[in-house]
Amino acid sequence: MDIDKIISDITKELEGNPYREAASGEIAVNMHDIPARLEHSMLAPDITRKKILGECANSVTYGFAAICVAPYYVADAAQALLGTNVAVCSAVGFPHGAISAKGKIADLKECILLGAGEVDVSLNMLAVKSGDMDAAKRDLDQVINAAQGKARIKAVFEHSVYTEDEKIAVLQMIRASGAQFVKIQNVLSGKAADPDDVRFVRNVVGRTVQIKIDGGVKTVEHATRLVAAGADRIGLTASVEIAKACR
Questions:
Q1: Catalytic: 102?
Q2: pTM across the whole model
């Protein structure tokens, strides 16, 4: 009996299997489904209109959930993606959420008018850190009311700035707000997206709110671990590379 050959054959079989065995309590993931969970992030300050249009085409080719662009490019992306299943996502109040609610609402309404179907909205972190959860809640509620169901709202959870008690309070606020998503953001910390953070958020918000997470996702393996932990969406720039690997 050739033990080495048997091990080699089993390894090849497992590598060729698009399904990954999930740990207890986690989601079994088909890697072929990963691209449909990706949000292709095109938010760098040096991105040109030509680049945006090319990445819109890639988003359709690889079946991404959305492409994320700055408000300046929403109209271009919406026109390029008209009639496709790829949503246009933009960001409001990024990154600190410290502008007025009126400012956020003005930006939100313009993004929706130009064709954004999804918007990542930064919470007022300064209000949270000052212990004024009522102000933070009013801010988020006003934004969600202004959306009038015309765009899916992703409430940004920049968790690195919060204490443990603040994290719970913010997530409970998001859960009660009617936002469709919590976005676990790692912009200010530079931390890589962590499956443990997904599990933590899921334990607080339950199943009524979807979860998006970003932060240095570069490989299929990393993306798969996040989805297995409960992430519904992943924001990243390496979307095309991961989609190719999934094929």
A1: no
A2: 0.85
